[in-house]
Design brief:
The complex is a heterotetramer of chains A (98), B (613), C (237) and D (346). Chain A is mostly helical and 98 residues long. Chain A contains 3 helices and no strands. The longest helix of chain A has 24 residues, at 70-93. Chain C has 7 helices and 2 strands, in the order ααααββααα. Chain C is elongated, with a radius of gyration of 24 Å. Chain D is α+β, with helices and mostly antiparallel strands. In chain D, helix 3 packs antiparallel against helix 4 (87-116), helix 6 packs across helix 10 (332-344) and helix 7 packs across helix 10. Chain D has helices at 2-8, 13-18, 37-70, 87-116, 225-236, 245-256, 297-305, 315-319, 321-324, 332-344, and strands at residues 124-132, 135-140, 145-148, 150-154, 158-165, 170-174, 178-183, 189-193, 199-205, 217-223, 287-288, 293-294. The longest helix of chain D has 34 residues, at 37-70. In chain D, the strands form 3 sheets. Chain D has a 5-stranded mixed β-sheet. A 5-stranded mixed β-sheet of chain D has the order 4-10-9-6-7. The chains are: A mainly alpha (98), B mainly alpha (613), C mainly alpha (237), D alpha+beta (346). At the B-C interface, helix 4, helix 5, helix 6, helix 7 and helix 19 of B face helix 1 and helix 5 of C.
Chain lengths: 98, 613, 237, 346
């Protein structure tokens, strides 16, 4: 049932655009993967950046977090930050940071 | 519509045992939690007494080394997961909706589900006593002692599955209370008007929701190793067994605050009421509670100071641990500030609360001593630590639980617990507690290692061990006095009236025991300590829900969620699946199928049966 | 799917104006972050620690997984479209899109099943050791007639090594989440035939919204796994 | 010694009883008297903290008790003034503990680094210790000495111990010399200690490691450098040949009863087992069964007869043929002869 603060959701067109970007980025990742080995050092950075981008797109548009209640962002980003913190802390403690 | 999935007809207006099995009423569920948890508290206490008998004298042969291992493991698991946590859950259930002016929790059936899953998880964890092999590695279960090759008994499987199932219960309950507190407050009850107990419930719930998955992953990995021969903790395959310790304590340290924050919340309600003053420095107390919850994530390696993480890691965790004492200290100072200048009525509830402060200071200060990583290398794994954790968990959590029981018993039952017996209970508890646990400091400093099933003569440990055992039995006796008080007062206790303590929060504005719908009219809140304001305050026109309204309106027209058997069925499936994971996979699949069936039926069942009215 | 749990009168009068269930799913997803975070942490801590092979570079096939990743990403598109349809009251379109989502999800699972079997049966070419070094019961006769290379099973199972345990547990639990998601989507599909989907339309598609949030979450977890385990994992190895 | 007298000072008897006065520093594993620099450093920090927390305890609990007594409800008392807090006061009691803790953090970090490695340039030696369920093997890599459960060190020398475990996690602790460090399978951890005075220091496993965890003890015996050197030379020699008839029979039984599967005796080629302790010079040790029993004839015999009486669940009882296979069972004569042989391995 509608409650006064129902967020304005994007149109299907936006969804399609996002999907197109996701597909293209995945293709780029695939292409970069097979790029020459001399590029290995920057590959990691590029993969990470592209991955964060895809992640953010899905969260913001498909999960509507960009348009929705701030409370949801707090729940989700809170869990995400804590999880990242645990991962980083463990990697540091095991001296396994890449 | 009253028939669910064509099989189970929905229980309507049930009575007797059926009323308890199908209840979705938060007060009844709270009572179920409370009674179950207290029974386990007695079980855990019995385990402790057997251990204390064994240790009373050097080379005592009351139990074997193996049984002793099972006893100390199960004592910890029982007290932490089956006594203190569910006792907190009992208070959450009984009090939270009443304090925030709600008629129930956000998801009443999920609430019942949490309880039944808890009960089944508890059964799984305790199965070892029946089949003769309980978990025997300590509650921390350090790999690789838990591996199949070192520990082929089923005990560790009960540990893994039992804790996993209990985790489901905890997360479900915690999610429920997060939503309830954020979303079901009475009009006007802003976050900064929430009673501190509610705040602490909220912080605890967030900790549960985030910490439980970490241990779940550890348990899954252990299960995979034991059942499918995987390599997570297999040193020969290159595994690092310290990973288990990290996963365990990343969960385990927030868990410590999961055990103590609700207790702090209870104290923050009891002290203002009995000194007739508002909580001193409310915003700071709330903020320090949040800070403790947050910092609880940054200190876990202080359980691992002797693991050899290196001086840098040890120093970092030593410093973060020390500074967690700051918000804790703030709370203690503000509690004393609350008493200062008040009109302190030394009934049993505030006595337990003051006892809490006293004992918690002792435990907190020895905690700071453990934070000093270099000297902790001497204290780690000795009775000095055992003393510390009992000062914070018994002197902290359990004292607060008793304070809470004496405080809210009249609200839940309409009768007062006997003050005369209560005073005996309090003073004997204080005596037994300090006699049992204080000498453990000495034993630790004299080099007695914990978890030893016995010790030789000539080490200088005999005297204090005997004293400690005597103290433990005094403590056990004090608990029996409480049980007597509880049952006697339930039947013959003095009628309390709605508001025996001149309470400050909304639960005291409604009848004792509260009607099923709690509030005939949802109150509107105009400040902190809403009910106190209404009674003694500055004349805000607070809607008076008490009195006449209840006499005339028997709750007609208030739709409450209807009883449902489905939470029990769904959780029964989980329990069966749990035993299946230990014994036989086809049974696990059967259990999963039952759970799935229950979930479908549940989702098709309306919260309120339409034909009820 | 679910009827609201709340007491009927509280349903429209939550403190924040947010539906209980929507808040529940977000808090639950926060919890799930910790779950997958811990699994990923285990994977990373053990990365490169296996004493024996095969390792990521031996078995992982980026081509196949890029396709399955694409499939899962597109399922998310289908999911938003189905939610968009139901929130406009268009049950017919909703049915089409949600079925597409479920089919793409199942396709992803099919890929995963294929991948897992493939890994277990993975064969690799090895250089023949000099004849003198061969153990007495040399398993492969291929090297006997002067060949320089021979092919042997070099499969990865959860028991093979640390990499196998961490890989299969991480991706397996993700797969289990996808499976639950597919069942959920199909249930919604079936439910839309009851009373012409009125129950789904009634609260603005909330029931679909909840499933969608879960589905997208499973999708973003895969985005992380694909990057960490596959792309970066193989590149570093 | 200064600190010791503080504990015994009658002026603080009450406080002392409350805090550490219940301890007797003369107890063999008491940490309140240190016999080496590492333990001393840890004790200094402990004492510093002990006094700090004592003062805080007295102040805060004094305030609590005074408050409760002074503000007890009197009959007919009205509602007290509704005080909500005092920002200045609250800031004060936030800042002061924070400053105190910051002050404690400095010596903490310094000590943490100190106890990890001996000071550069100090006179050092290394030993390697491996934890087993439930005993310790000890190797001196420089001299090649191999022994078990008894660590001999020269006085005044920093001993760096590299530790690892054969099976599960253990923890290596000699209360009077140094705090503990865990002994982890698949990893090497290290710590150091130094004994300032000759003597026998008790140690024990501190991490729960299974059924007989309580009986996983060991000893550190600190000697003058000359005595230590003599001991090393004696240990490097092969085991003495059996002299009496009983010893000779015992030596044969040691082989025929399959003891050699697990135990090594230098000079007896057949006895090359590595699962149990090296017994080459077992008779020269002060204790047997990982520090549990004094090394007397009676004890050795009782131990060989039924190890599980002293160490439930131990591996010798579980796997040794003499205990699992009736054909290898030991009769009374066998026990006497084996005991005689073991005691001849000086």
């Amino acid at each position: 049932m509608e409650h006064g603060r129902h967020p304005a959701h994007p149109t299907p067109m936006t969804y399609l655009k996002v999907a197109a970007i996701l597909a293209i980025v995945t293709f780029i990742e695939w292409a970069i993967f097979f790029a020459p080995e001399s590029m290995d050092s920057i590959k990691l950075t590029v993969f990470s950046v592209l991955s964060v981008m895809k992640f953010a797109l899905v969260v913001m548009f498909y999960m509507h977090l960009k348009f929705d209640e701030r409370l949801f962002s707090m729940f989700f980003v809170g869990g995400l930050t804590l999880a990242s913190g645990v991962i980083i802390a463990l990697l540091v403690l095991f001296q396994a940071l890449l | 519509m009253a028939t669910i999935a064509g099989v189970f007809s929905r229980p309507t207006r049930p009575t007797g045992i059926w009323a308890w099995i199908s209840t979705v009423d938060h007060k009844k569920i709270g009572a179920l939690y409370g009674v179950t948890a207290f029974v386990f508290f007695l079980v855990g206490g019995l385990e402790a007494l057997i251990m204390r008998l064994q240790l009373a004298r050097a080379e005592h042969g009351i139990v074997s080394a193996e049984v002793f291992s099972q006893l100390f493991t199960m004592h910890a698991l029982t007290m932490i997961f089956l006594a203190i946590m569910p006792l907190s859950a009992a208070f959450f259930n009984l009090v939270v909706p009443l304090m925030i002016g709600a008629r129930d929790v956000a998801f009443p059936r999920l609430n019942a589900f949490s309880y039944w899953v808890f009960l089944l998880g508890a059964f799984i964890l305790q199965t070892g006593w029946i089949v003769g092999s309980s978990p025997n590695t300590g509650w921390f279960a350090y790999a690789p002692l838990t591996a199949e090759s070192f520990n082929p008994s089923k005990g560790m499987d009960f540990y893994v599955v039992g804790l996993g199932v209990l985790g489901v219960s905890s997360v479900a309950a915690a999610l429920n209370f997060i939503i309830t507190i954020i979303n079901m407050r009475a009009p006007g009850m802003t976050l900064m008007r929430l009673p501190v107990f509610i705040w602490m419930t909220l912080v605890t719930s967030f900790l549960l929701v985030t910490a439980m998955p970490v241990i779940t992953v550890g348990l899954i990995e252990l299960y995979m190793d034991r059942t499918f021969g995987m390599n997570f903790f297999n040193v020969d395959a290159g595994a690092d067994v310290i990973l288990w310790q990290h996963l365990f304590w990343v969960f385990g340290h927030p868990e410590v605050y999961i055990l103590i924050l609700p207790a702090m919340g209870i104290i923050s309600e009891v002290l203002p009421t009995f000194s007739r003053k508002p909580l001193y420095g409310y915003p700071v107390v709330v903020l320090s509670g949040i800070t403790i919850g947050f910092m609880g994530w940054a200190v876990w390696s202080h359980h691992m100071f002797t693991v050899g993480l290196g001086p840098i890691a040890n120093s970092v965790f030593a410093i973060t641990t020390m500074f967690i004492a700051v918000p804790t200290g703030i709370k203690i100072f503000n509690w004393i500030g609350t008493l200062w200048g008040g009109s302190v009525d030394l009934k049993t509830a505030p006595l337990f609360a003051i006892g809490f402060i006293f004992l918690f200071i002792v435990g907190g200060l020895s905690g700071v001593m453990h934070a000093i990583s270099p000297s902790d290398a001497q204290q780690q794994d000795t009775y000095f630590i055992v003393a510390h954790i009992h000062y914070v968990l018994f002197g902290g959590s359990i004292m607060a639980v008793f304070a809470g029981i004496y405080y809210w018993f009249p609200k839940a039952t309409g009768r007062l617990l006997s003050e005369r017996v209560g005073k005996w209970h309090f003073w004997l508890t204080m005596l037994g507690m300090n006699l049992a646990f204080y000498p453990m400091h000495f034993l630790g400093l004299d080099g007695m290692v914990r978890r030893n099933y016995t010790y030789p003569e000539g080490m200088g440990w005999d005297f204090w061990n005997m004293v400690s055992t005597i103290g433990a039995f005094i403590l056990g006796f004090a608990t029996l006095i409480f049980v007597h008080n509880f049952f006697r007062s339930l039947r013959k206790g003095e009628i309390s009236g709605d508001d025996p303590w001149d309470g400050r929060t909304l639960e005291w504005s409604i009848p004792s025991p509260p009607p099923e719908y709690n509030f005939a009219v949802i109150p509107t809140v105009h400040g902190r300590d809403a009910f106190w304001e209404q009674k003694h305050g500055s004349g805000h026109g607070v809607h008076a829900p008490a009195g006449g309204a209840y006499d005339h309106d028997e709750g007609h027209g208030i739709h409450m969620p209807s009883p449902s058997i489905l939470p029990l069925i769904t959780s029964l499936g989980l329990g069966i699946a749990g035993y299946g994971l230990v014994y036989s996979f086809p049974v696990a699949i059967l259990g999963a199928a039952i759970t799935m069936f229950g979930t479908y039926a549940w989702s098709m069942e309306p919260a309120t049966a339409p034909d009820e009215h | 799917m679910e009827h609201t749990e709340a007491a009927p009168h509280a349903e429209h009068a939550t403190t924040t104006g947010i539906d209980h269930r929507k808040m529940l799913i977000w808090a639950f997803l926060g919890s799930e972050c910790m779950f997958f975070g811990s699994l990923i942490a285990t994977y990373l801590v053990y990365y490169g620690q296996s004493i024996s092979g095969p390792g990521p570079a031996d078995v992982l096939d980026i081509n196949t997984t890029t396709v399955s990743t694409f499939v899962l990403l597109m399922s998310s598109l289908m999911m938003v479209l189905s939610y968009s349809a139901i929130s406009k009251g268009d049950v017919k379109r909703f049915r089409v899109w949600i079925l597409c989502t479920a089919i793409l999800g199942s396709t992803f699972l099919g890929f995963q099943f294929f991948e897992f079997t493939e890994f277990a049966h993975h064969h690799q070419e090895f250089e023949c050791p000099p004849a003198l070094d061969r153990p007495a019961q040399y398993p492969d006769t291929a090297c006997m007639d002067g060949a320089t290379h021979y092919e042997a099973n070099y499969g990865l199972t959860p028991r093979t090594n640390l990499f196998g345990s961490t890989f299969f547990t991480l991706t397996g639990f993700h797969g289990a989440h996808v499976t639950v998601g597919v069942i959920w989507l199909l249930s919604l599909f079936g439910y839309s035939f009851r009373r012409r989907g009125e129950d789904l339309i009634r609260d603005g598609g909330l029931n679909v919204d909840l499933a969608a949030l879960y589905w997208h979450f499973v999708d973003i977890v895969w985005i992380v796994i694909f990057t960490v385990v596959y792309l970066i994992g193989v590149t570093v190895a | 010694m200064m600190k010791r007298s503080l504990f015994k000072s009658p002026a603080i008897a009450i406080l002392g009883l409350l805090l550490a006065g219940g301890c007797n520093p003369d107890n063999p594993q008491s940490i309140l008297v240190a016999s080496g620099p590492v333990a001393q450093r840890q004790l200094d920090l402990f004492n510093l903290l002990l006094w700090a927390v004592t003062i805080i305890f007295v102040l805060v609990c004094g305030w609590l008790v005074y408050t409760v007594i002074r503000y007890r409800r009197k009959p007919g008392q009205g509602i007290p003034e509704q005080v909500h807090g005092n920002t200045k006061l609250e800031i004060t009691w936030t800042v002061i503990p924070a400053l105190l803790l910051a002050a404690v953090a400095v010596p903490t970090v310094a000590a943490q680094f100190y106890i990890t490695e001996p000071p550069a340039g100090s006179d050092q030696m290394r030993i390697e210790v491996t934890g087993h369920q439930w005993w310790w093997s000890v190797v001196y890599p420089d001299s090649g000495v191999v022994t078990a459960n008894e660590i001999r060190v020269p006085v005044g020398k920093a001993v760096v111990v590299d530790l690892t475990a054969e099976d599960v996690i253990h923890s290596f602790w000699i209360p009077k010399l140094a705090g503990k460090i865990d002994v982890v399978p698949g990893k090497t951890t290290s710590m150091w200690f130094q004994a300032d005075e000759p003597g026998e220091y008790l140690g024990q496993c501190a991490e729960f490691c299974g059924e007989s965890h309580a009986w996983m003890k060991f000893r550190v015996i600190a000697q003058s450098p000359e005595e230590y050197e003599a001991w090393t030379q004696a240990q490097l020699a092969d085991a003495p040949q059996p002299a009496t008839e009983a010893e000779t029979t015992g030596a044969q039984l040691f082989i025929t009863k399959a003891c050699i599967a697990c135990h090594k005796i230098e000079g007896v080629p057949a006895a090359a087992g590595v699962i149990g302790p090296n017994l080459t010079h077992v008779a020269s040790r002060t204790a047997i069964a990982a520090g549990v029993l004094d090394n007397t004839e009676e004890n050795v015999r009782a131990w060989i007869k039924d190890p599980s009486e002293f160490k439930p669940g131990n591996i010798m009882n579980r796997d040794g043929l003499a205990y699992t296979n009736p054909q290898f069972a030991l009769n009374e004569d066998d026990l006497n002869n084996l005991t005689a042989y073991i005691l001849s391995l000086k």
